[in-house]
Amino acid sequence: QVQLQESGPGLVKPSQTLTLTCTVSGGSITTHYYYWSWIRQPPGKGLEWMGAISYAGSTYYSPSLKSRTSISRDTSKNQFTLQLTSVTPEDTAVYYCARNAGALIAYWGQGTQVTVSS
Fold first, then answer.
1. What is the dihedral sign for C-alpha 15, 16, 19, 20?
2. Do the Cβ atoms of 44 and 110 come closer than 8 Å?
3. pLDDT at residue 103, rounded to an integer
4. Which of 40, 84, 35 is nearest to 60 (CA)?
5. Phi, psi of 34 (to 5 degrees)
6. For residue 33, is the peptide bond before it cis, meaning its omega torsion is within 30 degrees of 0?
7. What average pLDDT does the segment 81-99 reach?
8. I want to staple 61 with a disulfide (CB 3.0 to 4.6 A). Which of 32, 66, 74, 113 is the partner?
C-alpha cells in the first residue's frame, strides 16, 4: 500500500518561499510509469494541480504557476519537494501530494494546511 505524507511549515510570510516535502512509503518514486504531483485547494475553491515530477525525474508545471514553482526529488529518501516562491495570501490552501498514472490519481497524502500571513 502506497502512502504519502506531506510535511512543511503551516505558516509562511508573504514574499517568502514555501517548501513542502512529500515522503513516500510502500513504493518507489522511480517506479515506471508513475508521476508524483502537488495539488492544492484554496479555501472555498476547487482543486488546482500545480505540477508533477515523473518516475524519470522530468518535471511538469501548471502554466499559471510555472514561474514560481519548482519540484525536485531525493531518490535516496524517496521524497519529492515543492518550492513556491514569492507567496501571497492567495497561496493559502491545503496542499496535497499525490501519485498519478496519467490522469488517474490513485493515492493522496492527507494534506497540509499552509497559511500565508504576516
1. negative
2. no
3. 80
4. 35
5. -90, 155
6. yes
7. 98
8. 66
pLDDT reading at 72 higher than 90: yes
Backbone angles phi, psi at 28, to 5 degrees: -90, 140
DSSP E strand boundaries for 1-118: 3-7, 11-12, 18-25, 35-41, 48-54, 59-61, 69-74, 79-84, 93-101, 104-108, 112-116
Quick one: 24 exposed, middle or buried, by C-beta within 10 A (0-12, 13-18, 19+)?
buried
For residue 57, give the C-alpha cell.
Answer: 525525474
The percent of residues above 90 in pLDDT, for the chain, comes to 94
Residue whose cell numbers read 502554466: 63
C-alpha 83/C-alpha 70 separation (Å) is 5
Q: Is the pLDDT of residue 48 over 90?
A: yes
Beta bridge partners of 4: 24
pLDDT at 101 over 90: no
Place of cell 494541480: 49
